[in-house]
Amino acid sequence: MTQPDKTGMPSWLPRAMMLAVWTVIGFAVAGWLFFQLRGLLVLLLISLFLALALEPAVNWLHRHRWPRGLATGAVMLAALGVLAVFVSVLGSMLVGQVLEFAAQIPAMSRALLSWVNTTFNADFQPEILLAELTDVSGQFNQWASSAAENAWGAGTALLLLLFNGLTVALFTFYLTADGPRFRRTICSVLPPRTQSEVLRAWEIAIDKTGGYIYSRALLALISTAAHFAALVVLDVDYAFALALWVGVLSQFIPTVGTYIGGALPVVVALIGGPFPALWMLVFITVYQQFENYVLQPRITARTLDMHPAVAFGAVLAGAAVLGAPGALLALPAGASLQAFLSVYIKRYEVAEHPLLEGTEEEQRTGGEPAADGAEPAVGRPAAEAGEGAADGAGEGADGGPAEKAGKAAGGA
Predict the structure, then answer these.
(1) Nearest in space to 397 (alpha carbons), one of 75, 50, 57, 77
(2) What does pTM read for this prediction?
(3) What span, in angstroms and rounded, lies between the C-alpha atoms of 133 and 144?
(4) Residue range 66-76, pLDDT digits in tens
């Protein structure tokens, strides 16, 4: 039993008080450092996910005797080229198209009101509405002029964006090119069993993040080609830029991206008249159904196809935590987390109940559409159900399976 000192205070109390004080100081310093370095931490997080997305392509080139640094540089240059094409083509179209559309709003409104009065035997007076619309178009021009005059602020923002982009590119290059060495360094301070679990989680993250990004990129390419053909047939200006806009937004922004991306081509087609806009709207609707029920299940069969509600909630959560970067990182992060948890969550046979009745396909696969030839996971422990996911992740980051990678790291 602890004996009190002459003042009646237990001997352990001063040490406990000092430990509490140092704990509070430690948390305060850590919080201050996190607040000061939050920008750098966000850039590191973005770089990590970009490295996970690029690593499958880098590993493929490395297995075909490319040096890892050269393979990383080639993949990054290809991705940067695609991004540059998207931004330059879309940027050159956006400002001119918005100003042209704003200038034609009064004429379009006059024609629309004339059609409504003729068709429905109405007597709407266009003067007040046209005055308001003229003010709106004038406001558009005023905003464009003020944005052009504020060149200093735009230049500062551009320099900051360029610096952050170079920082992300540098971290992404080293995390991808030196990925095996980085993982070996981390595993060298962990016990062998923990090394195996860390490498398994890393392998799942690489496979699911890369698979999700590449499947979405393929869907975006198909969507761009289809919408480009439709826009050319309807003789809509800036067909390639609009098709690229629809393809990218509809795939990388879940649920609402389709409507945001499809609204711009409809508005631009409206400049040529109501019928091109109507046909464009019909095409977007029909293609979306074709993509949801035909293309997407086949292309994403071997990757993680998240439920639209889950994907939308993940984007909202990511935006609430990290803003715009969090919204972009939410989908690959959620896909990796869902795949990793599926390895360890144990599942049981589900009893029959009227509330669980669905389509025959859902009943056969246990509630989730299975890939062709895949065995339902219901009734199997997660260790067995996730075994296929872990093994299906392909080769490890160094070109070997996760088990071999774990053994290699254990001997590091």
Answers:
(1) 57
(2) 0.59
(3) 17
(4) 999 999 999 99
